[in-house]
């Protein structure tokens, strides 16, 4: 009996064990999403069909105490209108950010992969306005602290050397030698960073407000014309000329002359001394750096014996001249090259503009800035009379030696600073989906096409304050009723969300179902606004995960979601479909076609129904086969 009982117990245990084993097998067969699936290769073996990529951006303006806004463009954002460079209307930056307090930025930006160069732009006066930069080794770098060496012999200025004769018949001399592009030796110039408690760039920024860049007529600042020049009242007056800004399209040559106060002057007969051969921030598209805001040069007085002195005696007046586009129109790459030209070669007569003109308006204005205590000098190289094509200031020791109560004065606004609205960066594109996933299909990429526009608002500390997303379905070639949605990182969903009518915030998946039926809403615009309370920086903003839901039914789980290649499905997706049939990370298993793409443009022309995308965009196949290395702009053709 005891033995039979033991056998019975053992049999019961065995039955339980077998039952558990079978149950486990059945559960695995029912719930294992990988059942009957071929193992997928590593995702890195597949091309992700990306048309944007991360590019490193490194900018160093080599300044202190100022945070300029920088913008990156895929085409030149500037044009010249009536001799004045202005920003084109309607052109959108690909990337925007503020630098830190020393004019530096290190980070990443997303750019269309077809670009091989970009344009670095800033509206800040005192900095290079627009620089063309190459994308090299997946990076864009601009560094004003990396000074180039002048490609001519270095000459230390001494009283025995200057002035250098440039053109005898023009009475044209120079205080300096220069290198390629007008580079100047570091011993010729020093650099001012601050004026009292204000940085040089702060001063330049105030001058932008005063002169109102954009062609405003500032000829009223001429007054009676008698206060433009600098009249010296005290012996042993030191005069320094400091460069502030260039907003001109010309490469102007700038300098000074002097004469006895109270006498008339014939500018053709008086000696003229070049201070800056090329008033420019850079040369060769930023490859050679020429001037920086704050560059300072001591003006010299030459006595009747030709001896140079670094101070001026009382009773002399300093005037100003420029040769409009003088560097481009006449000078060689350096002074030594130029001196080889015949003396009779005078390309400057018609381009000479002075503060003592014979028959036309003066080319300069001077105004007193009470905040800094300096005299601001503005130049006009064309005809729009903005008088801010070039900006300098004059620093005198003692300052009282050049004060003139009749000189126009800039209104003193104190420390008043107008609040600036948040900046916004605008990103646009087109999303195209195939809804027959995970089965292979016609790959016409036109079942659902949605255009999007994303505006990211951020403050001067680069903190994101608001994001506005606009989505517009523009084409639907699908048989099914498909919804369009996008998933957002849960930490960046927003403190306040405003949804369009019919949209749903799906908290469980951190998604917004923008429209439940794309087919019925072609042309309708859906706007989603999210506001933030300073929770994260712009460079911490994560990308979206856009997708469509095939045969959408609200609240349904185990749904069919079609995402961009190598993007993850949400928790509501039917996981068993992932990697089944022809799918490999939302790419067909052969790697030739995606099930969804993000095209960095608006106005993409859809392929004719049931025609593969490469039949009408032949560059697509080359692009895909080359893993994105060739035909990068296939969608533009």
Q: How helix-rich are the residues, as a percent range?
A: under 10%
How many H/I helical runs?
6
From the alpha carbons, calculate the radius of gyration and give it in angstroms.
34 Å
* Cα end-to-end separation: 90 Å
Number of separate structural domains: 3
Strand runs, count? 39
Which stretches of 5+ consecutive residues score pLDDT under 50? 1-31, 150-159, 342-348
Report the major sheet.
7 strands, mixed
**Would you tell me the structural class of the helices and strands?**
mainly beta
Average residue pLDDT: 88
Shape: elongated
Strand content: 25-35%
Walk me through this protein's architecture.
This protein is mainly beta. The chain folds into three domains: 52-143, Immunoglobulin-like (Sandwich); 165-212 and 225-401, no CATH class; 422-606. 10% of the residues lie in helices and 32% in strands. A hairpin with an 8-residue loop joins strand 7 (117-121) and strand 8 (130-134). It is elongated. Mean pLDDT is 88; it is low at 1-31, 150-159 and 342-348.
Topology:
Elements: H1 2-31, E1 52-60, E2 69-73, E3 78-81, E4 84-87, E5 95-98, E6 104-112, E7 117-121, E8 130-134, E9 139-143, E10 164-167, E11 172-174, E12 190-191, E13 194-195, E14 198-199, H2 200-211, E15 230-231, E16 238-246, E17 253-260, E18 272-276, E19 282-283, E20 288-289, E21 295-298, E22 301-302, E23 308-309, E24 316-323, H3 326-329, H4 335-339, E25 352-354, E26 364-369, E27 374-379, E28 390-397, E29 423-433, E30 448-458, E31 464-475, E32 482-487, E33 496-498, E34 504-506, E35 511-515, E36 526-531, E37 545-550, E38 560-563, E39 596-599, H5 613-616, H6 619-625
């Amino acid at each position: 009996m005891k033995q039979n009982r033991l056998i019975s117990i053992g049999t019961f245990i065995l039955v339980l064990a077998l039952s558990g084993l079978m149950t486990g097998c059945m559960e695995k067969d029912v719930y294992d999403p990988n059942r009957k699936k071929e193992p997928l290769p590593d995702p890195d073996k597949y091309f992700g069909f990306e048309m944007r990529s991360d590019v490193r951006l490194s900018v160093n303006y080599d300044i202190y105490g100022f945070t300029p806004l920088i913008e990156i463009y895929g085409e030149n954002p500037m044009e010249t209108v009536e001799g004045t460079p202005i920003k084109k209307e309607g052109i959108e930056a690909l990337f925007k950010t503020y630098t830190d307090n020393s004019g530096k930025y290190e980070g990443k930006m997303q750019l269309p992969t077809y670009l091989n160069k970009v344009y670095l732009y800033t509206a800040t006066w005192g900095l290079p306005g627009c620089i063309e930069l190459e994308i090299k080794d997946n990076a864009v770098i601009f560094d004003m602290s990396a000074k180039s060496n002048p490609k001519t012999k270095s000459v230390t200025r001494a009283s025995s050397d200057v002035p250098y004769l440039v053109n005898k018949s023009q009475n044209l001399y120079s205080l300096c030698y220069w290198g390629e592009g007008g580079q100047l030796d570091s011993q010729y110039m020093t650099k001012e960073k601050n004026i009292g408690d204000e940085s040089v760039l702060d001063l330049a920024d105030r001058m932008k407000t005063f002169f109102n860049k954009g062609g405003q007529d500032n000829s009223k600042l001429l007054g009676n014309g008698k206060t433009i020049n600098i009249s010296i009242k005290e012996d042993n007056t030191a005069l320094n000329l400091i460069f502030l800004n260039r907003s001109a399209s010309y490469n102007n040559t700038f300098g000074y002359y002097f004469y006895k106060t109270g006498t008339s002057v014939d500018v053709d007969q008086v000696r003229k001394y070049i201070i800056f051969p090329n008033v420019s921030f850079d040369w060769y598209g930023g490859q050679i750096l020429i001037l920086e805001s704050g560059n300072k040069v001591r003006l010299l007085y030459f006595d009747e014996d030709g001896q140079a002195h670094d101070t001026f005696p009382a009773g002399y007046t300093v005037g100003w001249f420029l040769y409009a586009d003088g560097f481009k129109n006449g000078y060689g790459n350096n002074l030594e090259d130029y001196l080889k030209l015949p003396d009779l070669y005078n390309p400057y007569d018609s381009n000479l503009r002075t503060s003592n003109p014979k028959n036309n308006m003066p080319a300069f204005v001077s105004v007193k800035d009470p905040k800094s205590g300096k005299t601001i000098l503005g130049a006009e190289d064309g005809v729009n009379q903005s008088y801010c094509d070039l900006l300098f200031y004059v620093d005198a020791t003692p300052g009282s030696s050049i004060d003139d109560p009749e000189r126009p004065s800039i209104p003193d606004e104190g420390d008043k600073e107008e609040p600036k609205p948040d900046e916004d960066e605008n990103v646009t594109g087109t999303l195209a989906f195939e809804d027959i996933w995970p089965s292979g299909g016609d790959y016409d990429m036109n079942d659902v096409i949605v255009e999007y526009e994303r505006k990211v608002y951020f403050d001067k500390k680069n903190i994101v304050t608001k994001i506005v997303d606009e989505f517009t379905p523009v084409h639907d070639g699908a048989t099914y009723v498909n919804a369009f949605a996008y998933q957002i990182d849960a930490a960046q969903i927003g403190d306040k969300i405003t949804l369009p009518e019919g949209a749903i915030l799906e908290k469980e998946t951190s998604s917004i179902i923008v429209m439940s039926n794309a087919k019925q809403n072609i042309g309708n615009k859906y706007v989603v606004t999210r506001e933030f309370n300073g929770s994260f920086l712009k460079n911490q903003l994560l990308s979206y995960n856009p997708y469509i839901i095939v045969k959408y039914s609200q609240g349904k789980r185990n749904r069919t979601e079609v995402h961009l290649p190598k993007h993850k499905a949400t928790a509501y997706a039917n996981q068993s479909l992932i990697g089944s049939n022809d799918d490999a990370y939302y790419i067909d298993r052969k790697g030739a076609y995606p099930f969804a793409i993000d095209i960095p443009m608006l106005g993409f022309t859809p392929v004719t129904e049931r025609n593969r995308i490469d039949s009408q965009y032949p560059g697509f196949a080359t692009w895909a086969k080359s893993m994105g290395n060739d035909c990068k702009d296939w969608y533009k053709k």
